[in-house]
Queue: 3 jobs
Job 1
Amino acid sequence: MPVARPAELSSPLRAVDVPAATEAAQAFLRALGVDTSAPGLERTAERMAHAYAELFRAEPVTLTTFPNDEGYDEVVLARGIPFRSVCEHHLLPFMGVAHVGYLPGARIIGLSKLARVVEHLSARPQVQERLTGQVARVIDEELQPQGVGVVLDAEHLCMSVRGVRATGATTRTSAMLGRMRSDARTRAEFLALTGAGAA
Ligand SMILES: Nc1nc2c(ncn2[C@@H]2O[C@H](COP(=O)(O)OP(=O)(O)OP(=O)(O)O)[C@@H](O)[C@H]2O)c(=O)[nH]1
Ligand SMILES: [Zn+2]
């Protein structure tokens, strides 16, 4: 039976207007003192518009699930999923890896879908904490497993190339739902499998 799609899988962004974004980027660059007619920069504003449009382009995702016929009752973990998103404060990228796991109930999910959820929810202005929670909630709603665990480890360019310039510093966030949250053994097993260490 089809399950209602979680609201979070609908992108909050409106359609991209590339000409308007290009014009705005042109004005933005000029205001920053950049000569946009200099050789090599004539098309920079347009490239900026396309680059951000690409960062915000969310591919539709359908979370295919299958009956758990084997009765598999251990943690399933997709580890080291590379992702990139954009911080909503500075519109600079943050990127790293996601570890997404669940403890199956009646159904299992196509493994690629765990990475697709991360990719989909990354394609909007984000903060890492919200992205982490959204990934966990979408999988929980769609699959209704016994538990979900998500760990994100990311470098924020707004923190490494500007501002405090803490180059190499990474931020780790986690979201645990169901038995991954309430059952210490399951939680510890999940964290051990991710390599994120004990809780
Ligand atoms: N919690 C959280 N903070 C973030 C994330 N991405 C960026 N930030 C932070 O958002 C904060 C915005 O702080 P502000 O003081 O308004 O901005 P700012 O003057 O540019 O701050 P600095 O980066 O310290 O120079 C900064 O501390 C960023 O490091 C995120 O995903 N989660
Ligand atoms: Zn930022």
Note: The chain has two domains: 18-55, 62-194.
Job 2
Amino acid sequence: MEYRDKLVLAPMVRVGTLPFRLLAAEYGADITYGEEIIDHKLLKCERRINDVVGSTDIVEKGTENVVFRTCKEERNRVVFQMGTSDPLRALAAAQIVCKDVAAIDINMGCPKSFSISGGMGAALLAKPDLIHDILTTLKRNLDTPVTCKIRLLKSSQDTIELARRIEKTGVSALAVHGRRVADRPRDPAKWNEIAEVVAALSIPVIANGDVFEYEDFHHITSVTAASSVMVARGALWNASVFSPKGKIPWEDVKREYVRKSILWDNDIKSTKQTLKEMIMHYSCLEFPEGKAVIRSETLADIALLYGEEKYYKFVNENRLLFGGSR
Ligand SMILES: Cc1cc2nc3c(=O)[nH]c(=O)nc-3n(C[C@H](O)[C@H](O)[C@H](O)COP(=O)(O)O)c2cc1C
């Protein structure tokens, strides 16, 4: 996997499932991260080929609960992001998915109490020895590229020291979210501190934070000298941010997202959450559209809401035709 000059869709819980990743790629994202999945959850899963949808599914054993869905089309650009606090558990979990993805990434930035209390996400930032063990265990035992995503530490010097230690493990790239653990999303990302990490390392650094327009890709690269750029909210609100031709109206992106959700039989909770995030940004969940999304229980409800009933019927009547050809 090449990490230079790439536009990257950031990992986003509930949002970064297959339809959203394919949508971002269609507009121009080169690398697309999946949502974070915890190793414990993955270890309860098995890999299944889904001929009906045309996907490869990681499914909770004994259930039909799809934890991760991917397809051949994205094999060379999809990054599986994992939450972990243990090297051997991370390895066992990674082995379940590594043949179907382009890279495995470890989340070292999540500030949520669920992650921290499990010793995962940003909790790892205070444990450089554990970071080292997790990354070297994965590196030594997998053929798949391994990366990680961190936040800034209290001082630039601390961040640089940790980044250097991470580089020594042999990871293929390091994504740096330019905020500290205690920062809020509205606090400006510190591109200057990402620049200091870039200057201290020789592996590719992926700069992340506050990219909302196509022009920002150039802007953040010129400030940080990072190899690649990662976007979360800018893409969530309008995935066509990756398009060099400029953004298209968000309603059009939303419609395409709905169609892709139907085509890939996306988890309804993921589709609802993604639509809610878009609506919250541009409109209001209290308006009729928002209320109707909240009320929806199935993809058929969503199809009806967005006038895609015919497409829904067509896809579901021809599933085997679609799935088999993928
Ligand atoms: C809805 C949402 C879900 C997120 N989920 C994850 C995640 O699963 N893993 C992760 O490392 N970061 C996650 N993040 C953080 C983003 O990947 C990114 O680091 C952060 O939003 C800063 O980028 P931005 O300024 O482009 O939004 C999430 C962010 C959002 C908005």
Note: The mean pLDDT is 96.
Job 3
Amino acid sequence: MKAHNNNDSDSFDQLLSQLSTRLINSEPDETQSCTAEVIAAFGHYVNADRCYVFEFDPEIQRMNNTHEWVRNDFSAHIDDLQNISAGDLPFFFNQMRNNFRFIIDDVETLPKDASNEYAEFQRESIKSVICIGLVAHQKLLGFVGCDMIRQKHRWTQEDIQRLSLVSDMLANSLERQNTYQKLIETQRQLEEANLKLQAQATQDGLTAIANRRALDEKLESEVKRAKRQRTGIAVLLIDIDHFKPYNDYYGHLKGDAVLRSVAECLSNIMQRSTDFVARYGGEEFAVVMSTDSAWQALRKANELLDAIESLEIEHKKSSTEPYVTVSIGGYFEQPSIDSDIPNAIKRLLDNADKGLYQAKSDGRNCIRFR
Ligand SMILES: Nc1nc2c(ncn2[C@@H]2O[C@H](COP(=O)(O)OP(=O)(O)OP(=O)(O)O)[C@@H](O)[C@H]2O)c(=O)[nH]1
């Protein structure tokens, strides 16, 4: 076998140093191609027939071949060297766990208890093999190795030293890659948690529709839009009639179910992208709609009133029995271009509330528009 001369060693060291710089600065995709280049470079340098990287699972019970370089026509084995267990190659796994290396000049000299390994080396026509562990923070992550197929090779101190350099480089890069993956995963979890928190902050827990806070935000954006586009905006306040007697007679849990049914019914009807339904508090709901006329809003309010009664939820303790009904107060306004937004919002809510009070006074299950 060809011995290295000083030129070989110098040019290999230079190449390794360049690849190392690239690995340090590489994105995950480039890390893969750099690793492939590193093992190819080592394969050429040591005049090997096959070079590879394997990664262990955290328990060092299984390993996968992640990168492979083969000389000329030698057969590649990366596909059949996946998910290899410690039970398949016990001698090898033990050597790697205990010594972080496995160096065999002649596979014929393997001890008897390495019969599985011997059979595997025969299958791959391997005569000599060297594997050096990828170790980061005293943890064995995998190994980089070389096979000699054409002829046996006595691994020199120089081979071992240079492959150890390669393994240090790859271990650091693998460690960095794992940290990067963990960071990406943590970031994904944080974003998911943030989205959930955001949804919770603007969602009513019982009915899953928007809450009061979301309503305030919506009113502000809709008033701004109405001002800009010179359109009108209507607010409806919808209150379940005699809900206290309902709770007292049917129980709080059934009361909760009524709130959910009413919320769902309102949401099903208010389906335009500019429609908005929120739980205003207790047994009261609010609807915001962009509309050109009070008449259109009144028509929608009538639809809602009928739809709730049509749910036919029994309510024996109501003056509007036999079913659960609602009273609705509404107000429509076309904000002028110079109207003050907080005042406009206050006007919308106050007037809708006055309408609701009037509807309650006038016997409930009716609409009063101001
Ligand atoms: N089940 C249930 N009840 C609620 C919830 N929030 C508020 N309530 C009840 O809603 C009822 C509201 O009662 P009142 O304000 O007296 O109104 P009402 O009985 O509906 O009378 P009118 O509105 O005048 O027709 C109270 O009994 C509250 O306990 C809730 O989340 N679940």
Note: The first strand starts at residue 50 and ends at 56.
